[in-house]
Each structure stands twice: as structure tokens, then as C-alpha cells.
UniProtKB/TrEMBL annotation:
Domain Peptidase M20 dimerisation: 219-352
Species the sequence originates in: Paraburkholderia aromaticivorans
GO terms of molecular function: metal ion binding; peptidase activity
Name of the protein in question: Peptidase M20 dimerisation domain-containing protein
Keywords for the protein's UniProt record, in alphabetical order: Hydrolase, Metal-binding, Plasmid, Protease
Superkingdom per UniProt: Bacteria
Any single biological process term in GO: proteolysis
Matches recorded under InterPro entries: ArgE/DapE_CS, Cyt/Met_Dipeptidase, Peptidase_M20, Peptidase_M20_dimer
Length: 462
């Protein structure tokens, strides 16, 4: 019975094709949470895929209804071996974004795994089906080798992450005692680079808001009225430019983060952005001046215009449009005064002379970041480096946003995220894929992490 034997076992699971078989079956289930008619399939994924596999590891599982009406259920499970052992909370999600089958490359389908060299294609394969399948297979390898896990494990699994995780925070609050643990260990998002095992400690927050401007008299002929009637499109374009300039720099001081702490700056100093195969070239002189690309992505805030609309671009007419609107997104790090965003944006627009622009907050999620000096960080780094022989890339937070606030804030847990995808995976886009060498390495390192949780000297948080 040994750590290396467990890793050898999980490596054989991958090399034999058994892991591909499991993943192919899961990808074939079109678990699109945006579709109301997918509800039976979302529940089936929980019962037939996740509950079934956990049951083979002697977990006691329950499917819990979502407190938000009409939203998918959750699976909550646990395997308690001894109250004296450390307890780990696991998380994953089985829902995916829309398949968008018409836009996949010829010969590829969102619902059938296609292997082309090292790339395995399929909708949701990167986000999140390969990732939670890797973690469950690693648990199984430890259980098979040891005859037990050597630690207590709990899990909360959702089917609504791609529609904003409705009900997740409420479930965590309601089941706070039941989900009590020493640490969350979960997998989502990309590694910093495909070849670099990565740990991130939280995520940037996200705030979506809409700007709209409508006149009271409708569209009017641009020749007869141009020059004397305000054009909503022109006004809104300038309002947007007052929020974020032509170089991507945020112009509302209240929506900027605090100065980057020396500890965080040191953690990202060696990171490179955009050097993986398939990455786009970085735009020169874009973003906050004086920062490195890594600091802009992992330690600063960004404001992006996601969509704009005015008139009819496909069939324009010679008229001043009646209205214009834009949807924007603020990605922000810990310390940002994001809860006052509406107030701050409105006050800024009034100062800039755009008081007619209406501001609506549409969605938001908090930023989180575990202290890099927390002992669970050193535990994860040490374990992964033992398994891979590689230095771990430690990110203070993911550049994107995951529902980590439910675990870090509502449950009060240290959060360790170990991603198994890579930046070029085309997550949410046609031709989404994962890399076979990354998955194989991820199976090995997660088996090592779960094995080490059953060894002496594991940190305790409770």
C-alpha cells in the first residue's frame, strides 16, 4: 500500500481508455442549464453519474431541491471515517453552456467526444466535466489502494453554475453545519499555462451593469434634425469613454482596487500571459499603465464593454436612433468598493454631463482571496510538487469568476482550487477541448493530494 501505487493505478485508468469512456458518457448528456426542457437531464446527471460513483466509494448522498424555484437541484454527500480526521469539502458542476452545434468545426460535435491527437473535443469537457471526473477518479484510486480515504470527505455538486449558481449560497447557509470542513479543494477554470500545475486561492468578482439612454420622441430624420437633437448613440459612446478610456484604463477612481500588496506583487512577478499555443497576441499599451500583464489580470480591476446596440446595423436608415444601450462588466479584486458601484457610476456620469443615462445592475458576485501564507497553500504546493516534480504556479486569485464566495465567506473555509484545463481550451465557445497530457498529469497530482490528506501533519482549520 503506497502513494506511488495509487498514482500508478490512476495512470493505468487513464491509459486503458476507461477514463475516456466515462468522460464520453458524461459529455453525451446535453446538460444545458439555460434550457428549461433540460431539467430531467440535469437531475439524471446527478443521480446516474455523480451519486452512482460516490456510492461506490460509500458516500451517503442526497439530492436536495434548490431553494430558488425552477432551478436545478444539488447533490450533497459525505463519507465520515472518524471525527478525529481532517474533513475536506469537494465541489463541482455538471451543467454546461449551450452546445452551439452549428458553429463547431466540421467533423466535431458538442455531444460526442472527438479525439484528435492530444485534444479531446466536447461541450463542457473543460468546464467542468473532465475536471470533476478527474477528482472523482483520483478519490477512487486512493480508496482502492488504501481501503479507505484516510480523511473525511463531503461534497456539494450543482447543476446551475452556468446560469449563475442560483441557490448555492442559500444552500450553503442552510446546511452550514452539515458542510462544515477544514478546507475546500475543488477544480475549475484553467491553469496559468498548460505545462504548469496551478493553484489559485479565490477569484476576481464580477459585476454586470447596463447603461441605457432613450429619447421621448422616437427616431427622427438625420438630415432634418441632425445637429439640433442629441443622438443617444453618440451620447452613450462618450459616456462609455468616460468610464473606460481608449486604452482600457478605468476612469472611475471609486471602482479601482487598493494598491497591489507587495506579497501579491511578488506572487505574480514571474508569470507570463499569452505564451501558450493558440493564445492571442497581447495588445500593446492596453490596460492600467505601470502594471505587468499578470498584474492586470490577477491583481487589478478591468472594465469591459460586452455588447452595444443602437439603430439597426444590418439595415441602417438615415435617422437619429431613438435609443442606445450597452452591457458592461467590471472584474474586480478583493478590496474594491463594488457594492456601491451603481451609486459611483451614476455620480460619475452626472459629473461628466451624462445625467440622462440610466444605470441598472444586473448581476454581481464577490471577489475572494485566501491568504497565501495559509498552511493549506503550502500543503497543496508540496503535494503537487512531489507528484509532478514541477514548481507550482500559485495565483492569488483566478482572473475570471467562480462562486467561491459561498465557500470562502458563507462557509468560512480556506479555498484551494486546482484547475485541470488550460487557457486555450475554448471554454464556452465552439470546439471546446481539453489536453490529454494535462488530464493525465492532473489525475496523478490529485491522487497525490488525496493520498496526502490521509497522512500525518495535515493542517486543521476547524
Amino acid at each position: 500500500m503506497s502513494r506511488q501505487s495509487a498514482i500508478t493505478q490512476v495512470r493505468s485508468h487513464f491509459d486503458s481508455g476507461a477514463f475516456l469512456d466515462t468522460l464520453s458518457r458524461r459529455v453525451a448528456l446535453a446538460t444545458e442549464s439555460q434550457r428549461a426542457d433540460a431539467a430531467p437531464l440535469l437531475r439524471r446527471y446527478l443521480s446516474e453519474e455523480i451519486q452512482s460513483q460516490l456510492g461506490s466509494l460509500a458516500f451517503i448522498c442526497e439530492i436536495v431541491e434548490n431553494p430558488v424555484s425552477g432551478m436545478p437541484p444539488f447533490l450533497v454527500g459525505e463519507r465520515i471515517e472518524s471525527p478525529e480526521l481532517p474533513t475536506v469539502l469537494l465541489y463541482g458542476h455538471g451543467d454546461v453552456v449551450g452546445g452551439d452545434a452549428a458553429n463547431w468545426s466540421p467533423g466535431r460535435s458538442p455531444w460526442q467526444v472527438k479525439v484528435e491527437g492530444d485534444r479531446w473535443y466536447g461541450r463542457g469537457i473543460a468546464d467542468n466535466k473532465a475536471q470533476h471526473s478527474i477528482n472523482l477518479a483520483a478519490l477512487a484510486a486512493v480508496f482502492a489502494e488504501r481501503g479507505e480515504l484516510g480523511f473525511n470527505a463531503k461534497i456539494i455538486f450543482e447543476m446551475g453554475e452556468e446560469v449563475g449558481s442560483p441557490g448555492l449560497d442559500a444552500i450553503c447557509a442552510t446546511l452550514r453545519q452539515r458542510l462544515r470542513a477544514d478546507v475546500l479543494i475543488a477544480s475549475d477554470g484553467p491553469r496559468q499555462r498548460a505545462s504548469s500545475p496551478t493553484v489559485f486561492l479565490g477569484s476576481r468578482g464580477a459585476l454586470h451593469f447596463r447603461l441605457a439612454l432613450t429619447n421621448a420622441f422616437g427616431a427622427r430624420h438625420s438630415g432634418n434634425w441632425g445637429g439640433v437633437l442629441a443622438n443617444p448613440a453618440t451620447v452613450l459612446a462618450n459616456a462609455l469613454a468616460s468610464l473606460v478610456d481608449g486604452r482600457g484604463r478605468i476612469r472611475i477612481n471609486g471602482l479601482l482596487p487598493p494598491a497591489i500588496a507587495p506579497q501579491i506583487r511578488a506572487r505574480v512577478a514571474h508569470l507570463e500571459i499569452g505564451n501558450d499555443e493558440g493564445d492571442p497576441p497581447l495588445s500593446p499599451n492596453w490596460g492600467e499603465p505601470g502594471l505587468t500583464p499578470a498584474e492586470r489580470v490577477f491583481a487589478w480591476n478591468t472594465l469591459e464593454v460586452l455588447a452595444m446596440q443602437s439603430g439597426n446595423v444590418a439595415n441602417p436608415v438615415s435617422a437619429i436612433p431613438r435609443s442606445a444601450e450597452a452591457v458592461c462588466q467590471l472584474r474586480f479584486v478583493v478590496g474594491t468598493d463594488w457594492k456601491r458601484a451603481k451609486e459611483l457610476i451614476e455620480a460619475h456620469l452626472v459629473r461628466e454631463g451624462f445625467d440622462g443615462v440610466e444605470v441598472t445592475i444586473e448581476a454581481s458576485g464577490a471577489a475572494t482571496r485566501l491568504d497565501p501564507d495559509n498552511p493549506w497553500v503550502a500543503f497543496a504546493e508540496r503535494s503537487i510538487e512531489t507528484s509532478t516534480g514541477k514548481r507550482v504556479t500559485l495565483l492569488p486569485n483566478l482572473g475570471g469568476t467562480i462562486p467561491n464566495e459561498s465557500f470562502a465567506d458563507t462557509l468560512g473555509l480556506p479555498t484551494i482550487w486546482i484547475p485541470h484545463s488550460y487557457p486555450g481550451c475554448r471554454q464556452h465557445a465552439p470546439d471546446e477541448h481539453v489536453l490529454a497530457p494535462v488530464m493525465r498529469e492532473a489525475l496523478e497530482l490529485m491522487t497525490g493530494v488525496f493520498w496526502d490528506l490521509g497522512e500525518p501533519g495535515v493542517p486543521r482549520s476547524r
